[in-house]
Amino acid sequence: MRICELVVVLLLLAITTLPATAQDKKALKLFSEAQTDYQNHDEEEALAKLKEVIHRDSEFVDAYILLADVYNEMDSTELQIATLKQAISIDQAKFPKAYYVLGNACYRIGDYRGAQKAYLQFLKTGTAGKLEEKTQKQIAACEAASELVQNGVPFEPEILEGCINSEGDEYWPSLTIDGKTMIFTRLVSTGNQVNELMPRFQEDFYQAQLVDGNWCDCEPLNSINTKENEGAQSVSADGKLIFFTACNQPGGYGSCDIYFTRMIGGEWTKPENAGSPVCSTAWESQPSISANGEYLYFVSNRKGGRGGMDIWRCRLKGFSMSGKPDWGNLENLGESVNTPGNESSPFIHADGVTLYFSSDSWPGLGGNDLFISRLTNDTVWSRPLNLGYPINSYKDEQGMIVDASGQNAYYSSDRTGSDGTDIYRFELNENTRPIPVSYVKGIVYDRTDGTPLHAEIELFDVDQDQLVARSESSPDKGEFVMCLPLGKEYAFNISKKGYLFFSENYALTQVRELTNPFSVEIGLEPVKVGNSTILRNVFFDTDSYELLPQSKAELDKLVQFMTQNAGVAIEIGGHTDNVGSAEYNLALSENRAKAVYQYLLNEGLGVDRLTYKGYGFDQPVVSNDTDEGRSQNRRTEFKIIDVSK
Description:
By secondary structure, the chain is of the alpha+beta class. 22% of the residues lie in helices and 31% in strands. The protein contains eleven helices and 32 strands. A hairpin with a 5-residue loop joins strand 2 and strand 3. Helix 4 (61-73) runs antiparallel to helix 5 (77-90), helix 6 (97-108) packs antiparallel against helix 7 and helix 7 (112-124) packs antiparallel against helix 8 (132-150). Its main location: membrane. Keywords: Cell outer membrane, Membrane, Signal.
C-alpha cells in the first residue's frame, strides 16, 4: 500500500530562524543557499552544499532534516533513513514529525518493524494531531505486511527462454488462449537523443510464437507501431483483436485513450479510438478484453469512481458493419475492488470470473501489490486476496497475466541478474488459481462448396440455461476460437442465415487435458429440402421420452431458426440404439420425437410446419458395437421437408 509521503520540506516551513548553535557563518550561508536550490528542484546542488554544511557543523540538525528530504526526492531511501536517524539522535524533540517521515521511509523499503517502531515513537511525542488516524492505519499496515512475510508462498520465477527478452526492457505480456502467441511491449531506441547523454526511446509492440517450449520469431507489429508510444495491450483469445493504450493522439478524447485494431484478411487494421463510453476526457488505459469478448476491463480516473484510478468494465456487444465497437453498459467494479486509492493493470482470466489487478490501497507490502478477486454473481466481486510474499514486495508489482490452464502466471520484473526489465513465468499457488479453461478451435464453411462462412457462434451453460459466450467466425477464413471453462456442460451452436444451424455438446464436468483442446471443422448445410441436422443438446433419461430441462436452450434455438425461416417445414426424427426390441425402440423414438414436436407447438409454431416420426434403430449413423457408437445413434434430428410454406 503506497503511502502519500509527508515530505520533510513541510517541517522546514516551520523554520523561521537559523539555529543558534550554528556558529560557522559559512555553514549558515551554505544552508540558506541549499534551501533555495531545493525549492528550485536542483537537488544535486543542494546535496553538495548540505554535505559541506554538515562537514562544518556535525550538530546542525536542520541541515540533516533538509538533506533527508533531498534524498527522498532523489529516491535514495536508505540514505534518507540514515540521515533522519542522525537528525533524531541529535535532537529528537525539535522535529517530532521526523519520526512519521522515518516510518514512511522504512515502510517503502520493506522494513516493517522499523516503520512500526518509528510510528509508535511519533505517537508518543503527542504531536500527531491530524496525522494520528493515518499513523494508526500505517501501524496496522505494518502488522499486515509482517504477517504476509511470515506466511510467504512458494515463488520460483523463470525468465522466458528465446527471443522475447533482450538487453532492453520488455513488459506487459498478453497471450492468446492457446498459449502459442505472445504480444508484448518492448522499449526500443528511436535513434535520436533527448540530450548528449540520453538516447530517446519509445514503446512498440512485438509478437512471438511458442515453438517446442521456446519463444521465437519475435517481430515488431509494424502495421500498428508508430513513432509515438503504444503499450499496455490486451489480445483477444483468438489473437484477432488487440486493445491498447496511446496518449496525446490527434482526435483523442483525453490525455490517454484506448484504441483497437482487428486482424482482417491477414493484416491488422489501422488502429482506431475505442470511442465513448470507454474513452472520456479523463485518463483511460490498461485494457483487458474478456476471453468471450463480452467485456472490456480498463482503468480510468474519470468522475464517478471511488478515488484515484479505478477499474471499470464496459459490455462489448459486437462490431458494426463499419467496424466500430458497439458498446453497452459501462460500470465501475465498485467498492469490492476499487478503493479511494489507485487500482490498476486489470487482467480478467479466460474463465470470465477471476480478476487479477494491482492496488496501492488494499492491505499489502507497499507500493502496488497484486491481488485476486472473483465474480460471485453477475456484479458482485469477492474481497481481494493479496497474492502473497514474495510475489509481492515493497516495490511495485503490476501487469500480471495467467494462462488458460490457470497454473502459469507471466509478469515483468527488473530482477537482479537480468538485462533491465524482462518477462518471467511462475507457477501460481492453488488458492490463487482461476478455473482452468479449455477451448474449441475450428473453421466454419459451406458444406456444398467449401466456402468459408462468417457465422454466429453461441455457447450455453446447459444446466443454467444461460448464454455464456457469443462470438463470430472470421469473415475471410471462417476461423473461430471459443473458450470452455472446465466443470460445466455446454451446448455449442453455430448458425448463419440461409443455413441449418450446427449443434454440439461439450461435457467438461470431468478434468480434461488442457493441451488437447477441441478442434473442429464445421460444414453448414444450406436450407434445402432433404438436408438435416442433429440436435445434440436434446436430452432424455434412459427409457424415457420426457424432455429434460437441459434441452431448453437447444429447443429454443430451433424455435428461433423456424421463426427466421418462415417458409420452412420440418420433420422431427427420433432415433435409438439397438438395445431392446425393434418394437420397443420404434415406440420410444416416436414418443421422443413427439415430445419435441409438442414443445415447438407450445412455443407457437404452426402445426402445418411440423411433423414427427420415430425410426427406432433402423438408421444408425455409426456401428452399435460400442458404447460410444450407441450413444451417437441415440439422437434427435430435424429435416427440411418444405421451404415454401
